[in-house]
Amino acid sequence: MDSELEAFIPLIPRADFSDPVAARKNLAGLAASVPAPDTSDMEIEDRTVPGDPGVPVRIYRPRGARGAVVWMHGGGWVMGDVDTEHPWASRIAESSGEVVISVGYRLAPEHPHPAALDDAYAVLSWAAEHAADLGVDPGRIAVGGHSAGAGLAAAVALRARDRQGPAIRFQLLNQPGLDDRQATWSARQFTDTPWMTRGKVTEAWRHYLGGARATPYAAPSRADDVAGLPPAYIATAEFCPNRDEGIEYALRLLRAGVPVELHQWAGTFHGSQALLSADVSRRQNAELGAALRRGLAD
């Protein structure tokens, strides 16, 4: 474990998803304590994307942006919104110089799969149709997210490919949750790692699937064919149950001819990039912005 991160482990709340309402309240409190970067050089706007129902989004527009990312927050599909994601969405906009469209998708268990996927896909479609209004090139639209949000982003890319939907230039997947089966080495071994435990992962998938059988659009690791998907940046944390499913997905993409940049962050755990006083966390956050900038470049 990275020594700077290890010092914080006793302070990390041992929340679980058995009480979604309490989990959401706890996350809101934690998010409020995280400083956001300077946003004076960008426009920030809250909108509702038309849909059934409408989807709340927060749009971050840095000056000179040429591309955009449809960004999904983490929280195990159970917690999080555009407010709790503000420190991270604004940080990615600031570090990448690109437009970030932060999606307030519907949460489980009240709204199980495919509600969140439908919301995320609706925002992607809207962004592609309104690229001129957003001031971006319609050929420079990416999808991305943290954790459960990264799994949603991967699922959006699969649906867009299969439906011949909006063109996606790039996938930015940070510590993605991709596989409900929890059969990888890391999922079986890391049962009580900081922040994300095996029990917490199990609860998240139970809420998200709502008793239905997982499809590739819920758990992208189940996809039989990953050819033709957009290029990807995938980041994993060493002491994280999701680690091996992220690495294995990256390898499958590579074998299918999809360009992939894979970064396995030594000494980190799931969500540890939120501990901004640690050097490795600052480097993780900076690299997300740099990877997005590269992915949307000429």
From TrEMBL:
Keyword Lipid biosynthesis: no
Alpha/beta hydrolase fold-3 domain boundaries: 69-272
GO molecular function, one term: hydrolase activity
Keywords, alphabetical: Hydrolase
Keyword Isomerase: no
Name of the protein this chain belongs to: Acetyl esterase/lipase
